[in-house]
Automatic annotation (TrEMBL):
<protein>
    <submittedName>
        <fullName>TetR/AcrR family transcriptional regulator</fullName>
    </submittedName>
</protein>
<feature type="DNA-binding region" description="H-T-H motif">
    <location>
        <begin position="44"/>
        <end position="63"/>
    </location>
</feature>
<dbReference type="InterPro" id="IPR009057">
    <property type="entry name" value="Homeodomain-like_sf"/>
</dbReference>
<dbReference type="InterPro" id="IPR050109">
    <property type="entry name" value="HTH-type_TetR-like_transc_reg"/>
</dbReference>
<feature type="domain" description="HTH tetR-type">
    <location>
        <begin position="21"/>
        <end position="81"/>
    </location>
</feature>
<keyword id="KW-0804">Transcription</keyword>
<dbReference type="Pfam" id="PF00440">
    <property type="entry name" value="TetR_N"/>
</dbReference>
<dbReference type="InterPro" id="IPR011075">
    <property type="entry name" value="TetR_C"/>
</dbReference>
<dbReference type="Pfam" id="PF16859">
    <property type="entry name" value="TetR_C_11"/>
</dbReference>
<feature type="region of interest" description="Disordered">
    <location>
        <begin position="1"/>
        <end position="23"/>
    </location>
</feature>
<feature type="compositionally biased region" description="Polar residues">
    <location>
        <begin position="1"/>
        <end position="17"/>
    </location>
</feature>
<keyword id="KW-0805">Transcription regulation</keyword>
<dbReference type="InterPro" id="IPR001647">
    <property type="entry name" value="HTH_TetR"/>
</dbReference>
<dbReference type="InterPro" id="IPR036271">
    <property type="entry name" value="Tet_transcr_reg_TetR-rel_C_sf"/>
</dbReference>
<keyword id="KW-0238">DNA-binding</keyword>
Amino acid sequence: MVQKSAQPSQKPAPNSTRRSERSRRAIYDAALALVSEVGYPKTTIEGIAARAGVGKQTIYRWWPSKADVLLEAFLDLSEQASELAAKEGQEPFEFPDTGDLAADLKFVLRATVDELLNPRFEAPSRALAAEGVVNEQLGAVFVSKLLEPSLQLYVQRLRSAQDQGAVRPEIDPRIALELFVSPLAQRWLQHTGPISYEYVDTLVDYALHGLTPR
């Protein structure tokens, strides 16, 4: 009797969606790692592709420039941090409203110092902030997706302080928040001095109480 040859087992078709997501994740990781290791000017599409194990055509299919790769990778990093906090039972970040405006501002600004000095966030956020100055389109996305949501939390807290009588009613909260945020950002970006808890506490005290004798 002649035996029939066994039919070859059918292998499942490769999942292109899963493969694309794996490649995308590798590109994110490569971009963030290279910016931290060699700096933004030396980071290239070719370097990202080699580090991620993909062809540079794959990157150009999804992003027009290294700045766009880095921006999306940084947004993803921020989302991962939020998801991790949620898994650990932490509430989504909200600006505290304890009734003590100075204490609440100091609490949030100290948390901002911690993030700005975190190696995972510092290099990519510094690179994006600098690139956003010369790349108007990228800068607009950086502001709308990363900066403005945080700034609106300051606005809401200052408006609450106005309702409580702790801030003059004619004050524009959107301008007032710059008294705290802008000096910290400038010092961090331009390396004009160290940033610390003591520094941001002093910003709050100066801004809330003014410079002239009372």
